[in-house]
Amino acid sequence: MDAWERKAIDDVLAGDPASFQILVRANQDAVLSLCVSVLRSQAEAEDAAQEIFLKAFHRLRSFRHDAAFSTWLYRIAYNHCLDLRRQAHRRREQSWEAQVEQQGDAAHPFDEMPDPVLAAIDPRLQQALDRLPPDYRLILILREVQELSYDDIASVLHTSLDGVKARLKRARAALQEEARHFWQADNVPSSGATR
Amino acid sequence: MSNPDDKNDPEWQALARAAFPRPALKGSDAFVARVMSRVQADPAQGARFWWRQPRWLWGGVAVAATIGLLWLPHRPDTAPSLAPGRLAAWMTADLEAEPEPDSLGTSIEQYFL
To answer: If both were cysteines, with which of A11, B51, B72, B111 could A16 make a disulfide (CB 3.0 to 4.6 Å apart)?
Structure first.
């Protein structure tokens, strides 16, 4: 952990809440990007990120300096996003059932989500992602978007390295299985891809 | 940090790139200001005090009040009533004395028994 980060945490705990803005500024991009990847709505992501920082502020006394602050923050963000995702999933199932009841076959599952973030993703891939369990999606986002190492993911999820590897393997296999009907071999670049 | 089991798999990499595009949303001074205004509005550190836990506290109060209201009509006659006249009468009552018969010649207790 960097010295400035430790100092900011100590200052906040000593009664100077204004020092918390140093931590917000340093981590806002990562938290916002995690939230927008999970929630796929910029407005919701901003609200969620604010809540995550507030939770972190109120729980700062429970932060132990054995891990990076960002890893600890990711853990809060992961749990918060997982809760929001589950709530959204339940709400969408209920409204989807109501929509099917009213419109029959004309109902479309994405009519209610006109967010620009979705425009970047193939609609069939969106459906495949929506069918994944929320924790599979989140671990893939931690790995593919946030580019966390396996060790960091293990810290975020409070699990072992082998647990992370196994869960990532299952999540990847689940997405590949969901996408196999439309994801053709010609989508794969001929040379080895690097990100 | 790269791991051979996913970063060197071009098929997976192509799928991951399509499924998880990098979001363009970035932080800003305005975002920091919004967070900090909420922090300054509620700067208490550590666990929140019990009276600042509205969900379980006020939920518990509502449940207790409901149980109390439901129980009130069924309370034993020996228990004091909170009505001012009845509470005073209960406190000063001579427990050894025989119950006063009412106009029908029987006490209310006997009627219910």
So the answer is: A11
Candidates A10, A13, A28, A36: best to mutate against B (most CBs of B within 10 A) is A28
Contact by Cβ (8 Å): A89, A40: no
Report the SS3 class of residue A117. helix
Q: Report yes or no: A92 and A112 within 8 Å, Cβ to Cβ.
A: yes
Torsion of the alpha carbons at A120, A83, B12 and A73, rounded to the nearest 10: 100
pLDDT in tens, chain A (195 residues): 688 888 999 999 888 889 999 999 999 998 998 888 888 788 888 999 999 999 999 888 888 877 788 889 988 998 898 888 788 777 766 665 666 666 665 555 444 444 555 566 778 888 888 888 888 988 998 898 888 899 989 988 888 999 999 999 999 999 999 888 887 655 655 444 444
Kindly list the residues from chain A whose CB atom is less than 8 angstroms away from the CB atom of residue B8: 192
Predicted ipTM of the assembly:
0.72
Query: The pTM is what?
Result: 0.63
The residue with tokens 């495949």 is A128
Q: How many residues are there in chain B?
A: 113
For chain B, give the DSSP string.
---HHHHT-HHHHHHHHHHSPPP-----HHHHHHHHHHHHHS---SSPPGGG-HHHHHHHHHHHHHHHHHHGGGS-TTSPPSSHHHHHHHHH--TTSPPPP-TTSS-HHHHH-
Residues 93-152 of A with CB under 8 A from B: 117, 120-122, 125, 128-129, 140-141, 143-145, 149-151
Q: Which of A13, A20, A146, A181 to mutate to test the interface with B (most CBs of B within 10 A)?
A: A20
The nearest CA of chain B is from the CA of A33 a distance in Å of: 6
